[in-house]
Design brief:
Elements: H1 3-33, H2 41-84, H3 96-111, H4 114-126, H5 133-157, H6 161-178, H7 184-194, H8 199-213, H9 219-223, H10 226-247, H11 257-266
Helix pairs in contact: 1-2, 2-8, 3-5, 3-8, 4-5, 5-8, 5-10, 6-10, 7-10
Length: about 270
C-alpha cells in the first residue's frame, strides 16, 4: 500500500474513533428521547462523511505541513540572534525578527479562523450590521497577535508563567470595569473563537520550536502556555475596543456606541 494511502487510512480510522462518542450521544437521543429519525437523513449522513474526511485530511495537513513549518521557522528565526549574542547569552532585545513574526503569525492565523469568521458573521446578523464582522475579527486578531508576542517574549526572557498570566488577568479585570457590561460575555467567548483549528497547531509548533532552540528553556514547561496568552489577549482587546466605542463619538453608524449596545441587546 502506498505511504499516502496508508497514512490517510490511519487518519480516517483515528477520526472515526474520535467522532464515535459524539455520534453515539446524538444517535441515542435521536432514537430513544426524541423517537424520530433526523429530517433529510441521507443528506445528514453525506455531511457526516464529508466532516470525517475533512478532519482526516486536516490531520495529515498538520503533520505534513503546518507543524513542520512552524518548528522550522522558529528555529531559523531564533538561531541568528543566538549566534550574535556574546558567549551564547540570551539577550531578549536581539530577537526582534522573532517577535515580529510571532505577532504577524497570530494576526494572520486568527483572520482565517473559520469559527471566528462564522461567529463574527452571526454577530453582524444579530445586530443588523451595526457591528461589522470585519471590525470584530480585526479586534480579536489584534489581541491574538499581542498574546503571541507576549508569550514569545516570556519564553525568550524566561519570565515565570504565573506572573505573566497574573498581569494579563489583572488587565482584563480592569477593562471589565470600564467596558460596557453587556459586551463582557461576548469578549470572553472571543478567546475561544480565536484559538481553534488553524491557530492552535501553528502557534504550538512555533512556541515549542522556540523553547527547543533557546538554551536553558524546556519545550514542555516553556514551549506550552503560549496558547493561554492567545486565549486571554483577545478578551482584553475586545473589551478595550468596546470601551473605546463607548467613550467615542455617539452615532448610529457601523462603528458608533449604538453598535455596541445593539450587539448586546441582540445577543
Amino acid at each position: 500500500m502506498p505511504a499516502f494511502a496508508h497514512d490517510l487510512l490511519h487518519a480516517l480510522l483515528a477520526t472515526l474513533l474520535d467522532a464515535a462518542p459524539v455520534a453515539l450521544v446524538v444517535g441515542v437521543f435521536q432514537a430513544f428521547v426524541l423517537c424520530r429519525r433526523p429530517p433529510q437523513l441521507p443528506r445528514v449522513l453525506i455531511g457526516v462523511a464529508y466532516v470525517v474526511l475533512g478532519l482526516a485530511l486536516f490531520r495529515l495537513g498538520l503533520e505534513w505541513s503546518l507543524l513542520p513549518i512552524g518548528a522550522d521557522l522558529s528555529e531559523r528565526l531564533t538561531a541568528p540572534s543566538l549566534a550574535a549574542s556574546p558567549d551564547g547569552e540570551v539577550v531578549w532585545h536581539r530577537f526582534l525578527w522573532l517577535y515580529l513574526f510571532a505577532a504577524s503569525l497570530g494576526f494572520a492565523t486568527t483572520m482565517v479562523e473559520p469559527a471566528l469568521t462564522a461567529i463574527a458573521d452571526r454577530v453582524g446578523t444579530l445586530t443588523g450590521g451595526t457591528l461589522r464582522p470585519l471590525a470584530l475579527r480585526l479586534a480579536v486578531a489584534a489581541g491574538v497577535s499581542l498574546g503571541l508576542l507576549l508569550g514569545t517574549l516570556r519564553i525568550v526572557a524566561g519570565l515565570p508563567l504565573p506572573w505573566a498570566v497574573a498581569g494579563l488577568v489583572g488587565l482584563i479585570a480592569a477593562l471589565v470595569a470600564i467596558a460596557p457590561r453587556q459586551v463582557v460575555p461576548l469578549a470572553f467567548d472571543c478567546g475561544g473563537f480565536a484559538t481553534s483549528v488553524v491557530t492552535v497547531p501553528m502557534v504550538a509548533a512555533f512556541a515549542v520550536g522556540v523553547a527547543t532552540v533557546i538554551p536553558g528553556r524546556d519545550p514542555l514547561t516553556d514551549g506550552f502556555g503560549v496558547i493561554l496568552f492567545a486565549l486571554l489577549s483577545p478578551v482584553a482587546s475586545v473589551l478595550a475596543y468596546a470601551a473605546a466605542l463607548e467613550r467615542g463619538p455617539r452615532d448610529r453608524g457601523p462603528g458608533g456606541t449604538d453598535a455596541v449596545q445593539a450587539t448586546t441587546r441582540s445577543g
